[in-house]
Amino acid sequence: MSFLRIKTVYGKQLRDLTKNPTLLLGFLVLPLLGFFFSKMDIPSEEIRMMTRLYIPMYVAMCGLMGTGTTMAEEKEKNTLRVLMMSNVKPAEYMASICLFVLTIESFGVAYFIYLGGFHGIEILRAIIVILLGSLCTMVLGSTIGLIAKSQMNANSYLTPVMMVVGILPALAGLNRDLYPIAKYVYSTQMSEAMTNISKPLSLETIIIMLANMALCVAIFVRVYKKNRLDD
């Protein structure tokens, strides 16, 4: 892998973000919503709990939109094939996209950590969980970007997936009959970890999230082989 090529593609994504206000707005919606709630007459404990529930939704929104729409747009405009044919390896392209999403996402995550009242070791635990969840989501979003024929087509796929991944933890909390199934989805484990952030991360949480990541990577590799852009 070439750091220079990763840096070049990464810089291109940052420059392109200024031309894509819809994507930029997607990164800002939940942090702005959290800001408005923090200014309302709501007990601080409720705001902290609400913020911790927002994090899985925020990761889902940023990861899926950031990778899925970006890849679909470049695929539609044929720039993705050009990149692949100009000695940029798939791993380098994926690394640059993931770094791009993590960079933009980090501002919102930092704000949520502040609103959520995380401190000390809790911040480290939160970062580990968010990073694992982000990687799962970005690989999933990249897979959808490869499948989609256009950016508009990608949005039609991304929206329901975003709803399932982001809102499933809240639904599982309201309907305990759904929990036995929902607990095997990484976003539910993220939500539980954030809710119980004062406790050490459970082995079950780490195993389920790593298993989700392995599954997402396996699906991505299979889809990539069927949709090769560097042939």
What spatial form do the alpha-carbon principal axes imply? globular
Strand content: under 5%
Helix fraction bin: over 70%
Radius of gyration: 18 Å
If you average the pLDDT, what whole number results? 82
Distance between the termini: 19 Å
Assembly category: single chain
Order of helices and strands: HHHHHHHHHH
Number of strands: 0
- Structural class, by secondary structure, is mainly alpha
Low confidence ranges: none
* Sheet having the most strands: none
Secondary structure layout:
Blueprint (H helix, E strand, L loop, with lengths): L2 H15 L3 H18 L5 H33 L2 H7 L4 H26 L5 H27 L3 H24 L4 H4 L3 H10 L7 H24 L5
Helix pairs in contact: 1-5, 2-3, 2-5, 3-5, 3-6, 3-7, 3-9, 5-6, 6-7, 6-9, 6-10, 7-9, 9-10
